[in-house]
Design goal:
Blueprint: H1 2-11, H2 16-31, H3 37-61, H4 63-68, H5 76-79, H6 84-105, H7 107-112, H8 114-126, H9 133-153, H10 160-181, H11 185-191, H12 196-200, H13 202-228, H14 231-249, H15 254-278
Helix pairs in contact: 2-3, 2-9, 2-10, 2-15, 3-6, 3-8, 8-9, 9-10, 10-13, 10-15, 13-14, 14-15
Length: 280
Amino acid sequence: MNSIKNYSNFVKFEHTLFSLPMILAGAFLAWGGLPNLKLLLLIILAGTGARTAALAINRILDRKIDALNPRTKDRELPSGKLSLAKAYAVTIVGLVLYFAAAYKICDLVLYLSPIPLVVFIIYPLMKRFTWLCHFGVGLGLALAPLGGWVAVTCSFHSIYPGVLLALFTLFWVSGFDIIYATMDEAFDREQGIYSMVARFGRGTALYISSLLHQAAFFSIAFLYFLMFKTIVAGIMVAIIGILLFLEQRKSSNVDLAFFKINILVGFSVFLFVLAGIYLP
């Protein structure tokens, strides 16, 4: 039982709740109607495999830093609850699932599939040399709606709605990663870890985070005026704006802002797309 719990905690499956709604939002936006259920399942499998591999790679690359940080020293790798060999095994399982699903979707998706992996490897390393590291995390998740779009169309034709979703995700995720970094402000300064919080201080970093979330809201609002203009979709845009506002107001409560509100934001974006397609 403990072994299952260790694997579950290591993979952090709940983090898929950030990325999967954005993948599905991109896919349904490309469909513009009833989905192909087989393709929908393949997209979900690809997204789950990619997210599993991404988290495992992150934990493997950060294991030595995590061992020094009082907040993260009890994670599975630095604490010894999970061996490095088993961590690599989890990574391989995630990659096999990801590549197998990409292969079954279409050739273009398979050809492009290594690109997210490059991002997954680079962004955990960015904190070692630049305070722009938050945008690396944002870019990793911003690929999700683009991946969903390309999986449906197997082309880049008329991809600009997917690009707007990707911009929203880039600004949203980069903003909440800055909030997350406030928990390690003192540690990052002591260890020479780069973050906006360590570089500019908490107040300035949170101000930048708020600007990014404003940019995220304007990106999704622009998509609304460009594509939908329906009443229910408009209500969902307002809800997304309120959630982003609450995330900033509750930034001192990182558990609430990072985990609970963020999950609601992701699902609200997905519901926004569904409302724009199916509801008046």
